[in-house]
Input
Amino acid sequence: MKLIYDEIAERLNAEPVVLLDVHRTTLAGEGRYEGHKERPTTAPALLLALHGEAVFRFGGSPPIRLTPGCASLGGFDRTLTIDVAAGGFSYVIFHFEPVVAERLGGLHWREVAQLYSPHSVELTGLIEQLCRISPVPGQLEQLHKQTLFYQLLHEVLESARRYHNSQSSSVVEQAIAYMHARCDEALTLDALAEMFGMKPKYFSYLFHKFTGIRPIPYLIRYRMNRARELILYSELSIREIAAQVGYYDPYYFSRLFKKYMGMSPSAIRELPR
Output
């Protein structure tokens, strides 16, 4: 399953782009800017929010709320209005186009992708360098700009990946804690995914990414390990232990236990403690 930063990286690898210009802009607060309301944009762009808050409305796409650390990419041949919150909004925009001009009209660069890319020291430094050398003419200077722009694109996508992984890790940790606490309940993949506002397939993908195992097999293994502890160190009956780990059919529990542990519950109970 490809994530947005992987899709963008794949597109850039397949379709090299060239930097056209760089602009740093500040918009006054509580205003609407309609420079592209009637006249569509003429190039796709990477836009990085620096200060404040604004809502970008690209024609035909859901509104995008940008605050520091947020970025948007694409937006070619789209109408655009900008609603700025109180306090104003500052951003830097990098217009670019594919090296093969015929590919500009494709759907890829018309789409608007939103990324959360917290500004690192490296990213901030690249922004400052590009803003500083942008007006300087010359072929070597253009090569320098192009090199820095690709470094900037990489840092934005890498930052988005780091943030995504940190958030995903937290979700998986919460899911594991929930499964441990509620292992006696009838937990399903659909129910677990819904808790975190995800589709089951994507939730299962994230869980496997961080644990190396899918959610339900993880839950079963945890239940079997917990049952083994109870069999060895408690006086509960096999029926009671089965219920404590979410199985109300002791015969089904016994079969599953033997499959995972290699021994039946009664055989485990006879082991020396």
The first helix runs from residue 4 to 14.
